[in-house]
Amino acid sequence: MGLWEIVEDYETLFQITYLNNDDIIRLNTFKNTSRKVESLSVRALLQQLTRPDARIVYYGQSRKPYLDDNSYNISVTHSNEYTAILLSKDRQVGIDIEYMSHNIDRIAQKFINKHEIISNDPQVRRKHLYVHWCAKEVLYKICNKEDINFKEDLRIKPFEIASHGYITGIINNQSRHEEYNIYYMFEKNYALAYCFK
Question: How far is Cα 176 from Cα 162, in angstroms, rounded to an integer?
Fold first, then answer.
């Protein structure tokens, strides 16, 4: 796993990242600089973790990322000033990071189901909800985002919030019933979760 705090500007990231002509053309399709910086931070982190000319290719409607040489399974996430990548040679992976900036309670009904228990303490509740969101994103990525109802098919077993820990996530729909150990942690004002299949 790699975690990159984006402190560089566009020019700096552009200079330290290997890009071929196709990469530069793709980079120039992004309209705003922040999206370009985000893309370059992913490439810079990937090249630090693997090889200098590593490239990500996206396939299908889900836009699932693959390495150009298939040397690793990969999951990519970014939020605000952080980018994270999780790699494995032989296992499916999922990672998600979220900047805890907004009142997530307003959208909780969109992703929390009746089987999930969320704290009523406002300070704990916010972190609880962000961990649930990140953990469900991780499960969604493990399933390749296919045939999954985010709210109803993904469930997080009850847990006590801490600065970091393991929780259990369940995928349950017509095609699968699987349980996963999901690791979560907080870094500054970010929640991060990841797991392996």
Answer: 30
